[in-house]
Amino acid sequence: MMSGNQTRRELARLWLAATAGVAGAEFSVGASIAQTAEPTPACGHDERATPAQTEGPYYSPKTPEKANFRADAAGDGFNLMGFVLDRRCRPIPRALVDLWHADSQGEYDNKSYRLRGHQFTDARGRFVFETITPGLYVGRTRHFHLKAQAPRGRILTTQLYFPDEPGNGRDGLFDRRLLMRVSNAADGKVGRFDIVLDV
User: For the whole model, what pTM was predicted?
Assistant: First the structure.
């Protein structure tokens, strides 16, 4: 993997600028971004919806609306970004994206809303979360949990996975179709995954 010279925020700004006119634009903002995993769904006429996965035991409803989790816990910085699209690869504005995950020690906060929050996609269907890389816990590989919902649509519950994790092959829930593309930034990592809803 190539090292990034830009920070995660700089890369997010570049990505938002680069994708201002094209919903399904590739995550490519210069030589510092490397494609390190199988691509998430490419745009076409009839895309497959993102696979659903279990919610798990650590979900908390009614999360706060927030996109920046960095004050919630110490850890290696990670920005998660992407589009929410329909099966015709059209962006879905105001789609709900609800994210939660373990802290760097593999622990979930079930008493408050640390490392939990939701946002709504912008007019071009884009979202960006600033968070940390989740830690490992027994029986699971490294992952994010999320829910996504088009306005008045059905809720998709799924998980996103990190490429090249030793635990991927041992985790019975792991699904290669849910691998993010992850690249280095100067101050952490940046991940991209486009969510395709069956709408």
Answer: 0.83
Q: What is the 3-state secondary structure (H, E, C) of the chain?
A: CCCCCCCHHHHHHHHHHHCCCCCCCCCCCCCCCCCCCCCCCCCCCCCCCCCCCCCCCCCCCCCCECCECCCCCCCCEEEEEEEEECCCCCECCCCEEEEECCCCCCCCCCCCCCCEEEEECCCCCEEEEEEECCCCCCCCCCEEEEEEECCCCCEEEEEEECCCCHHHHHCCCCCHHHECEEEEECCEEEEECCEECCC
Exposed, middle or buried, 27 (CB in 10 Å: 0-12/13-18/19+)? buried
The pLDDT, as a whole number, for residue 26 is 41
Please work out, in degrees rounded to the nearest 5, the angle formed at the alpha carbon of residue 125 by the alpha carbons of 22 and 147: 140
Band of the pLDDT at 44, cuts 50, 70, 90?
A: low
Residue 27 banded pLDDT, cuts 50, 70, 90 = very low
CA 43 to mean position of chain CA atoms: 18
Q: What are phi and psi of 131, to 5 degrees?
A: -150, -155
CA dihedral 63, 67, 69, 70 (to 10 degrees): -170
Q: What is the pLDDT averaged over residues 169-192?
A: 94
Distance from CA of residue 56 to its chain's centroid?
17
Looking up tokens 């940390």 gives: 132
